[in-house]
Amino acid sequence: MSRIQWALVLLGVVLAVAFAGLFWSPVSTAPGSSSGVQNVTLFPGAHTSGDEPAANSLQAALSRAETLAAVPASLRGTEVDGQLQTTADGELVVTPDLRRVFDYFLSAQGEESLEDCQARLASYLQASLPAEAANEAWQFFQQYMALGQAMAALPPHDGSPASIRTAVKQRHDLQVAYLGQQAAEAFYGMDIAYDRYMADRQEILDNPSLNDTQRQQQLQGLTQSLPAAMQIMLEETRGPAQLSARTQALREQGASEAEIRRLREQQVGAAGAERLEALDQQRAQWEARYQDYREQRQAIIDSGLSHLDQETALARLQQQMFSDQELSRVVALDRIQAR
């Protein structure tokens, strides 16, 4: 499973509590998809970013790619998300997968510079496409990056359905301006439809004239009005969060592990229930290990050592108890505990 696919799995778990944060992002993403559903060819009148010709910047990126070190750790063992497509004549076909390819390489930012991410993308485009199609894809990438900067500069909304719709329209207008109508639909069509659905959903939830029964009926009708593919994706993303909530409620009511197992088997099957039980065990082991660490950490803080010696001892303790991959989580949890 690729890095991006893992991110989509996690999205399903947090979607139920992430509605407000979703809309404050300049570019929101429909669950299960990073883009729209159409296949279209390159729109010839779209914007380019900067004054440098795309071909020249591609050659510069390819030159940089020759000097790159090893692939970032997060990309090792993964496959590039998306399949690049061309016509029989070798012309680039712009599909949702093209955006996924861009995002795959950009996801390594933080581990390496943006310039290195772009160089890896350039090398991949050159190896995967005919020369002209690679040039078109690179030009499209420049437009995509410029669009991202433009959308990031948009003002936030106030959370109301009307303001959300205005924000959605502003983003869509920019997408069309930079990419063209058809290509914008290919990249962002599903995102826009999802944003509009969430705005309509919030309006129903905020309507004080509806009772609970009417509200549920309207919410159900809104969901049923969506295309079948989006209904399936919404159900898939809600499922993990709903199952987690029901599991927690059963535990608070004193349910046995056998009862929880039966619920999980009904929802995700026997194999899925076993995986969730394994996750429960891993989570319990982690919590026990972190609690042990917190007790040892507090003992160091209370030891009377100098600040420098405390920092040294705490760093040694973290290295002894956690892997390099776990340390960022430990640091974040310590910061939360300190508040």
Structure notes:
The chain is 70% helix and 2% strand. Helix 5 packs antiparallel against helix 6 and helix 11 runs antiparallel to helix 12. It has a 3-stranded antiparallel β-sheet. The chain contains 13 helices and 3 strands; from the N terminus they run H-H-E-H-E-E-H-H-H-H-H-H-H-H-H-H. It has helices spanning 3-14, 19-24, 54-65, 96-106, 114-128, 131-152, 161-179, 181-206, 212-224, 228-252, 257-301, 307-321, 324-338; strands spanning 40-41, 85-86, 92-94. A hairpin with a 5-residue loop joins strand 2 (85-86) and strand 3 (92-94). Mean pLDDT is 81; it is low at 1-51. The chain is mostly helical and 339 residues long.
Give the mean pLDDT: 81
Distance between the termini: 36 Å
Helix percent reads: 55-70%
The largest sheet, given as strand count, sense and whether it forms a barrel, is:
3 strands, antiparallel
Shape: globular
Flag low-confidence runs. Answer: 1-51
Class from helix and strand fractions: mainly alpha
| Order of strands, widest sheet | 1-3-2
Radius of gyration: 24 Å
Number of beta-strand segments: 3
Order of helices and strands: HHEHEEHHHHHHHHHH
